[in-house]
Amino acid sequence: MACNLVVDGIRVEIGSCKIFDNIEIRVGGGEILAIIGPNGSGKTTLLKCISRTISPVSGEIIVCGRPAREYSNREYSKTVSAMLPQWPSGFSMKSYEIVLMGCRNQSTGVWWEGEKELEVARAALGVLNAMDLYERDFDTLSSGEQRKVLIAKSLAQRTGIILLDEPVAYLDMKHKLEVMTVLRALADMGKTVLVTLHEIDLASKYCENVVVLSEGKVVAAGKPREVITSELLSSVYGVEAVVKWDEEIDYPVIVPKTGRLQRGEISCLM
């Protein structure tokens, strides 16, 4: 069932620091929405709010027409899954065991590691071309391999809304495309997908809409072709670049205007 997500004017403060204020976002079933912006702009914090890891000071998050705060933890875990890749290290678990943890929201008894759950875990890893990681110890995996296992765990929850924080970080080109293709297929099946990305080109290719955060504010939102411009890259990222769209494949080509440091600026590093 398609499920809409509405972020209605939320404000977040951590201690005396205001992270963002009056953030408004809407995304519906069948869509991928990309949140882009420079480091420290509030992208991860926004996903933490939607996943109920932290609570906004004001405003409301509406999930499937109902305030997120009204859901029980179990209800919410059946509706919203989140990959926020801060995974504790120092203890050993097999990759499939981590993916199986995503199945707990659907279980009704104490024992939830049955054949059905194992089938779901295999399917989640398989669709990401990561079955070779199935029996591997999570702590022995590369950062990119760990990222794919955590994505598989989120997919194994089988929720209507999927939140992913930088899902293609640490991945090479092939695996970035594999992950984004899977997310596109899930959205085409009616899922609501919200991702944070630094890969502006991938956001433009796979996502219906993008929202740009900067210093805790939404500074631009809309179709990628309308939003991703040379002016935006300059004002938000401080990067001078040429942005041209390939008309045949409807894809942006972004070419930075490279600069050079003066020798005196780095002489102390010689």
Automatic annotation (TrEMBL):
Classification via PROSITE patterns: ABC_TRANSPORTER_1 (PS00211), ABC_TRANSPORTER_2 (PS50893)
Keyword match Isomerase: no
A Pfam family that the UniProt record links to this protein: ABC_tran
Leader sequence segment: none
CDD domains, per the entry: ABC_Iron-Siderophores_B12_Hemin
UniProt entry keywords in alphabetical sequence: ATP-binding, Nucleotide-binding, Translocase, Transport
Domain of life: Archaea
Molecular function in Gene Ontology: ATP binding; ATP hydrolysis activity
ABC transporter domain location: 5-240
Record protein name field: ABC transporter domain-containing protein
Organism the protein comes from: Methanosuratincola subterraneus
